[in-house]
Structure formats: structure tokens, C-alpha cells
Design a protein that fits this description.
The complex is a heterodimer of chains A (328) and B (341). Chain A has 13 helices and no strands. Chain A has a domain at 109-281 and 316-321: Orthogonal Bundle (MetI-like fold). Chain A is globular. Chain A is mainly α and 328 residues long. Chain B has one domain (2-58, 130-340): MetI-like (MetI-like fold). Chain B has helices at residues 2-24, 27-39, 41-58, 72-75, 81-86, 128-164, 166-181, 184-195, 199-226, 229-236, 241-249, 254-277, 286-293, 305-332, 334-340, and strands spanning 60-62, 78-80. The termini of chain B are far apart. The chains are: A mainly alpha (328), B mainly alpha (341). The A-B interface holds A 11, 14-16, 18-19, 21-23, 26-27, 30-31, 154-155, 157-163, 166, 170, 174, 262-263, 265-266, 269-270, 284-285, 288-289, 291, 293, 296-297, 299-300, 303-304, 307-308, 311 and B 174-175, 177-187, 189-191, 193-195, 266, 270, 273-274, 277-280, 287, 290-291, 294, 297-298, 307, 311, 314-315, 318-319, 322-323, 326.
Amino acid sequence: MAAYLVRRVAYGFLTVLGVLMLLFILFFAVTDPQDIARKALGERAPPDAVQQWIVNHGYDKPLVVNTQHDAVSAARYTDTLLFDHYRSMLTFDFGRSDADDAPISARLLTGVGPSLSLTVPLFTLGLVVGLALALFVAFFRETYIDRAVLVACMLAMSVAGLLYIIGGQYLVGMLLRWFPISGFDPDPSVVARFLALPVLLGVLTGFGGDVRFYRTIFIEETGRDYVRTARAKGCGDMRVMVRHVLRNALIPVLTNIVMAIPFLFTGVLLLESFFGIPGLGALTVEAIQGNDFSTLRTMVYIGALLFIVGQIMTDVSYTIVDPRVRLK
Amino acid sequence: MHVISNIIVLALVAGAFALVQAVRGNRLWREALVELWRRRRISIVVLGLFVAVGLLDSVAWVGGAGSGTGDQVAASKPRSLIDRAFAPESFREVSYSAPFADIGFYDDAALEHPGEHILGTDILGNDVFYRTLKGVRVALLIGGLTSLIVIPIALFFGVSAGFFGGRIDDVVFFVMTVLASIPSLLLLIALIIVLGTGTLQVCIALGVTGWVSFCRISRGETLKLREADYVQAARALGVSERRIITRHILPNLTHLVVITFALLFTGLVLSETILSYLGVGLENSWGQMIDQARNELSRTPIIWWNIAGASIALFTLVLAVNLIADAVRDILDPRTLRERQ
């Protein structure tokens, strides 16, 4: 177990290094620092200002090999963009934004709270509703109820996420006036009012695909031998579904949950930006629209890091939920 | 440029025709197609209409426009059959008009083409129905072209990694893990911002993010097939590796290709709307129409037809492909095949 864990974490670290290399290629090797500077300063900025900006933001170093240092000194390789990039990302020293020179780490810290207050209820509610509905449908499989829910899921899956947000904001926020159209206030007494609509819309966007996926798993499980045995010993339908099928089906569901974490992150991008929630998603959208390369780079890195950590956790949790899986 | 795109369209049509001919020669595929037609008649017809509009919009040549007015820019621009049918430069109003309206929306002034704008006009007076039709080609291009680029590449790497194993597998698997670790929307945006926002660049970016899942599926399936009895038998008989792959592995992956194609297609078309909202989408796409029309909902009286045209077209296309994909999955699944007979 310990040996497996070490190897799994080591491979995860290797993946992080790979992600960083990809980011380096995209943001340093392919992108010209002159372009980044001009986007930050404006097209008509004088060449001196552009040069000064490049030096200030540390884009002036050579990419991989610094020929100014002699061949034997380590600085030949450490005084480069590649080394700086790896060093700053791996030590979580993200530097300053390309757009307005604000420190990125501070922004990330202030954005985490609002983001989590949106994603955690969204994620839990989506999971509970999805699993409950799928269990319900699997219980009534091959009936009209099953058919109706499947058709509804298919329809729900075919609508673009953007339309849910626009439609929901219009219908609930403007016509019915149940909730504020957008805004955020961390005060616990009012935060629910601001989060209700985005959470609702987030659940709506995801439930079509989720319900169909969970239903397939549940139906596959109901055909197993242990279900027949449970029936034979006199278990009621409800008990079979909840005690036996749901528990065993949780293993593939677990994979789907971890797979959903990065998608949650991206889905939140739109919700936060539309509802004015000052979280990480809104920060990313701002970075995209303001050509803020250093912030965007950091957000991609953080997203990948979260995903890799989540994947390691799934692999490890497999051993806990399913004793049959023995890690080699 | 339009000559090249015409050639691509012709090649695609010829390819589709050849594919149909090849499929007709195989009994199992023919039966599957008949079954698909029996189950999803409406969806197939709807998809066919979309493809027809996309093709009509792809066949373009220079000339016709602006020749009388001496407008050189307009005269040298290639125009497609759809452009020629609608003649958007003369078929426009001053500003908004409701669907089938006789008078302008705000000023009550008489329209130049009363009752002829099926879906009304947008703020610049352009016909919304025309813009919706123009979006068909963009959507098919994003979904179809990207899938057509991605699937062969993913198949190549997935099959070679699964079949040969060893170092090749290690490298392919590592690249896949790295790409899969980055949330796809973020990677997509990063790629587009770095590469630029042209059609080709967006398709490449979508391809880079889209090939991983299919590569993983085909690798897993190849790993399974490699141990199958008939592959072992072929090996024992001394059949060359290339022949094993082309004769025994690839044909058994085709059902996966068809299903993945459909899933990839709908995913790509839907994600384009998000790109448009973020300002990195494609020209003339439905996503852009929705994004432009988003603030018009808050006007009084509301302007709903701009968003309705694009949304309904997008919804119909994605739903049709989803329904077909669902039926294809059922039909090609060997378990249901036995039940049917």
C-alpha cells in the first residue's frame, strides 16, 4: 500500500511537471513577450515603455539557456524563463498580474471563499438530486416513468449551458423577481439569496448527463447475482435498491465525481461571471478578457493541480470503498 | 481561399458517398443502418436538412454583388448559394423588426420588406433567419471538421499504444495524462488566446483538448482486443502486425468511432457558445448571436427573436445528433443485437 502510494504520488508529480512544460511552451515559447507587453500597455505604447515592462515582469530572460553566463556556472540554466517558471509555480510564488500588477496569490486567496460557497452546495445538491432521480428511474425501469425522465434528460442535455443561465436570469430574476439577478455578499444572513439561483441553474445544467450515467450504472448492478440473492432471501424492492444496489454502484459513481471536479471548476467560470460572484471563475474570465497571461497561466496550473490531487485521492479511496481492489 | 474550401467540401461529399457505398456492401452495417432509419427517421431528416444548408452555404464563388454600384470590396467577395438566395445587402431594414412585422419595432416606420422577415431583424436590420442559416455551416465546421481531424489522430496513437505497449504506450499515456489533467475549458481558452481566434486555430485548439478521451477509449479497447482469441490465432498463423491491426483491431473499433464522433460533435458545438461568451468564439456562429442578443432580453418590450433563432437551431441540431447517437449505441451494442434476432 505504502509503495503504491509513493509511486502514485510520484507519477502525479511527474504529471504536474508535464503540465508546467505545456504551459511553458504555450505561454513563453509560442507567445512573444512583445505581444504580451503591447496587450497590457496598448498598441501605441512607445518601444521604451514596452521594453521596460518586459524587464519589470521578468519576460526579458532567454528561454532555456542563458548564454551570458559561462558554460560551467549553474546560472547558465537557472537564470532563464524555464527555470523561473518552474520555480515560481512549484513554490506557489505566482508573482504579479500582467494586467494591473496586483499580486496573484492574494487574489486567489480572496477568490477561494466565494467560489467554494458556490461550488460546494452546487456539487452536493447536484449529486444528491442526480443519484436520487437515477435510483428512482432505475427502480421504475422500462416503464413510462423511466421513458419520460430519459427523454427529459436528453432534452436537458441538448441545451447550451449559456442558455440556462440567460433564461434563468431572465425568468426567475427579472420576471418573477424571486432572487437578485446578480451580486454577492459574504454575510451569512443574505448569502443564500445571492447563491440560490446560480446553484439551481448549475444543478439544472448538469443533471441530464448525470442522471443518464447513474441510471446505466444502477441498471447494470440490478442484473447482478447478489441482487437476485437479496430478493430470494425476501428483501423488499426499496431495501434492495438502497442497501445493495446503491452501495455497490458507488464505485463507478466515485470516479464520475472526481472527474466532475474540474468541470465544476469550469462551469463555475460562467456562473460566477454572470452572477457577479467574485470567485476564481470570475477571476479567470477577467483574465481572459483582459489578456492577463500570468493570471490565466496560474489558473490553468491550479485547475490541473486540483485535478491531479483529486485523481490520486480517487485511486486511494477505491481501496476503501471496494475491498476487492487490491493495489499492486 | 473560397476555392480551397469548395474543394474541401467536394472532397467531403465524395468521401461520404464512398463511405455509403462501402457500408452498403457489408450486410451487418446495412442492417444496422436500416434499423437506425426505422428508429430515428425524424432526427436523420433534420440532420440531413442541416447538412444541406451547410453545403449550400459552402459552395461559393465571386461575383454578382455590388457590380451595379461599383462597390469593389463587395464585388470581390465570394458569396455562397445562401448569400445569393437572401441577398443580405438589399434584404435589410434600418433596425429591429419583429417576426413577420409590417412596421419597424421602435419608430413604427414602414419596413422595406414588410412581412418578409420570418424571424425579424436584429439591431442593424439584418435578417435573423439568414444569420441563423449562416450559423449552420459554422456549427458543422466546428463539430464535424474538428472530429474528422481528431479521430484519425486519436485512433492512431490509441491503437499503437494499446497494441505495441512498452515505450510507445508509456509516452502516449503520459501525454494523455498531462492533457487530461488540465480542465478542458481552461486549456481550450489558453490555446485559443495563444494561437489566435481564426476558424482553423479554434478547430486545432478544440482538437488538442478533444482527442484525449477518444485516445484513451481506443487504447483500452485495443488492449482488450489484443488478447482476443482470434487475434492470438492470427498471430500464431504468422499474420503481420500491420495486417492484424487493419483486419482485426480497427474494424472492431468502428462502433466506438461512430459513437465518439457523435458525442464529440455535440460537445464541440455546445462549447462554442461558451467561447463566444468569453469573446474567443467564431464569426457568424450561433454562440455569437446568443451572446449579442443576451442583453436585448432586458429591453422593454423585449427582443426575443434574436436569441430564439440561434437557440432553437442549436438545440435542434444537438438534440438530433444526441438522439441518433443514442440509437446507434443501442444498435451497435452486441448485447442488444442478440435480443433483436
